[in-house]
Amino acid sequence: MAEAPYRFSRARAERTIAATRVLIAAFSLYAVWLDPAQPARFAHLTSLLHIGCIAYSIVLAAVMWNRPSTGSLPLATHVIDIVVFSVLQYLTQGPSASPFFNYFIFSLFCGAVRWGWRGTLATAPAVGLAFLLISAATLAGSSDFDLNRFIIRGGNLVVFTVLLVYIGLHEARLREDIRRLAEWPVAVGDDGGQQIKRAVEYAAELVGTSSVAVVWEPDQEPRVRLAVWTPDGFRLSRHASTDVDPWVVPELSAIPILSVHGGDASPVVWTTGGRELAVRSDDAFHRRLGEVLAGPHVASAPFKTERLSGRVFFGSLDRTVEVLPLVEVVAREIGASVDQSEMHDRTRRLAIGEERIRVARDLHDGVLQSLTGVRLELQSLANQLRSDALSDTRDRLIAIERALATEQRELRFFIEDLQPIRSDSRIGGALPSRLEELTKQIAAQWKTPVTLRFAGLAGPLPPDIEQALPRMIHEAVVNALKHAQPSRVSVVLHGEPDGLRVVVSDDGHGFGFEGQYDHTMLARQNVGPASLRERVTSLGGELSVDSSAAGSKVEIRLPVAMHV
Asked: Residue 368 carries which DSSP code?
């Protein structure tokens, strides 16, 4: 019981107990004076002892009032209180008739205030034993023993003990929730998705749920992001604003709610304070969110920051409306974590964009101009070699000049990729044309057919995906042509509800290994196209490779919502 104070600081708790002890002693003395019939035995001794108890209470209150710490004094006074209170009750016809029975209740409260529910459990046996011993002594020495009052007062001790233990456990849980809120994970690192995942996982553990959905919309942007966490995994995706609009019905948009449905009870929605709303829980929030939130109880609360607004949903709850204040605070913490992650990503993208512009300018003004000069020199030299004897040399120079021209085109594509992302890029517009041109150029350069097909792509792709996709396809196709010596290469882009899937297959002799390797295996064994894997990882996607002597298939999955 030498733990930290339960509800107040120790010194403050002792001051509260000391003041209460003085008030109870004074009021009990007044009650005895007002109705002196009860202490029929040892009346004079009882009065003296009670007066001494009041003096002791006043002195102890004076000592504790300005004392900054307590030491072992609380435990000593706690034992003295129980002993003195037991003696007072013995002298006044025992616990069944004594006017000082409330002193035992006071002892239980002292244990609760000082040491929490553990203090109540430790005090209850001592008080109960004293109650039984005094009752037995009174029964043996007097015929005035009141069995009914003994049972009633014994029941009161049990009820107060249970109630104080419950209150202690409840406050211990609140204190633990506050402590864990204070230890909220800091959003650090380069991967915004991992930052959000860490915050959502911590929130799920704090609230006690097995499914969490977070939806938010950056200000002035026509898109929403949806993060879903379950014990099976974490998914982070982008959607059009209309895909999950509205998140909740308009009348619930600004308040925390607890949706209760299932079983024999009618589906209802409750707010903080236990107020029932005239909204069926089945209609409270969007169908897509309901698909990922399990359990009969779903708690939800909104959040808003300077740059975005959103809402958090916790499914699979077994707690009542008492959880809503915690859910509201946790939602604000999640909102702050999401805001930090978005801000970090935005700052990183700006820094990368500025670096890309600088590198593109250096390449254009430096390497590209130098290559142009080398090409002109080679053309001039080839034109000077007119004789038949030098025709082979002339042809080789022309071939070198053409190879340089091809590399110049590739370098121009690379420089174009380094330019700032165009906000008006859309599938069905510039990207398909660019990919078709890219595959045609690769096929012409490598003298190998390269086919391109789109399947189910009908909506916009995020700008960062459109920016990276041509380079990833170029790398995957050229890797196959360089190393597998295929007779054909196929590229297929599949639009799926939860992402984009790109499959690059060939009929060459495959990689240096055989079998199916997922993203984790490729990274762990450090095999396959490493730079391509890094590109995919930076976009939150996964790469897999299926290799055999009859050919290989490279599959890229990117987490972006598509309309199919």
From this structure: I
CB 3 within 8 A of CB 13: no
pLDDT in tens, 233-264: 888 887 777 777 788 888 888 888 888 765 54
Q: Residue 450 corresponds to which tokens in the numbers above?
A: 């390269």
**What is the number of other CB atoms lying within 10 angstroms of the CB of residue 230?**
18
More confident residue, 321 or 454: 454
Structure tokens at 208: 């006690």
pLDDT at 39 over 60: no
The full set of domains in the chain, from first to last, is 10-182 (no CATH), 192-345 (3.30.450.40), 425-564 (3.30.565.10)
Query: Residue 105: phi, psi to the nearest 5?
Result: -60, -40
What is the sign, positive or negative, of the torsion defined by CA atoms of 430, 436, 441, 442?
Answer: positive
Asked if 215 and 289 count as a contact pair (C-beta separation under 8 A), the reply is: yes
User: How many whole angstroms separate alpha carbon 186 and alpha carbon 145?
Assistant: 65
The confidence band for 322, taking pLDDT boundaries of 50, 70 and 90, is confident
- Name the 3-class secondary structure at 235: strand
Of the candidates 84, 129, 126, the residue with the CA atom closest to the CA atom of residue 103: 84
Tokens encoding 25: 């002693």
pLDDT band at 368 (very low <50, low <70, confident <90, very high): low
Structure tokens at 508: 């060459």
Q: 68: which 2 tokens? A: 């900054």
Q: Please, what is the Cα angle at 415 between 413 and 418, to 5 degrees?
A: 115
